[in-house]
UniProtKB/TrEMBL annotation:
Residues 1-27 are annotated as: Disordered. Residues 29-105 form the 2Fe-2S ferredoxin-type domain. This is Aldehyde dehydrogenase iron-sulfur subunit. Transmembrane segments: none annotated. The gene is paoA. It comes from Roseibium salinum. NCBIfam families: PRK11433.1. Its EC number is 1.2.99.6.
């Protein structure tokens, strides 16, 4: 079909003027970040998520890929002390940042108090979500101690309490398909009470 007089066929023009797509020439960046106290250098495609950089490039597979849409919390890590879903963040955005994954929290011979509490309170079943749960749980305690309000926080002028409601609300982004929620709550509460 011939376009009407004076009409420019943009499809043909854009197809002719476009540079050929070359997936082998993806944009990459080389940058450094600190992971679990150790400076690491990455050279990755700009589209690489922090989660994939940790798992595929740094071989830190404790951080799990669950939904890959920021809805399950299995990929939770801390960045500069704040928790985040690593599947929703590009690795190149974290140049110079301090990343803490489950591998940087404790060891089998020297468990972090939160890891020990999860064991003691049987706060896991299949264990797939546990690394993200533990990373998130540690950050939740710090958020409450720092007075950062949540959706269920009542009086913003009073100090925050380490209540079941606060912990549940803050942990609501971490899904446990096995349903170990009451035991997870007990583990977090035990650690919070030990720390006073």
């Amino acid at each position: 079909m011939t376009p009407p007089t004076g009409f420019k066929d943009h499809r043909a023009a854009s197809a002719q003027g476009a540079a050929p797509a070359n997936p082998d020439r993806a944009e990459r960046s080389r940058f450094s970040l600190t992971v679990n106290g150790q400076e690491r250098t990455l050279d990755v495609d700009h589209r690489t998520t922090l989660l994939d950089a940790l798992r595929e490039h740094l071989h830190l597979t404790g951080t799990k890929k669950g939904c890959d849409h920021g809805q399950c919390g299995a990929c939770t890590v801390t960045v500069n002390g704040r928790r985040m879903n690593s599947c929703l963040s590009l690795a190149v955005m974290h140049e110079g940042d301090e990343i803490r994954t489950i591998e940087g929290i404790g060891t089998p011979d020297n468990l972090d108090p939160m890891q020990a509490a999860f064991l003691q309170h049987d706060a896991f079943q299949c264990g797939y979500c546990t690394p993200g749960q533990i990373c998130s749980a540690k950050a939740v305690i710090e958020e409450i101690r720092e007075g950062i309000p949540s959706h269920v926080t009542g009086d913003l002028t009073a100090g925050l309490e380490m209540s079941d409601a606060e912990i549940r609300e803050r942990m609501s982004g971490n899904i446990c398909r096995c349903g170990a929620y009451s035991n997870i709550l007990a583990a977090i509460t035990a650690v919070a009470e030990e720390r006073g």
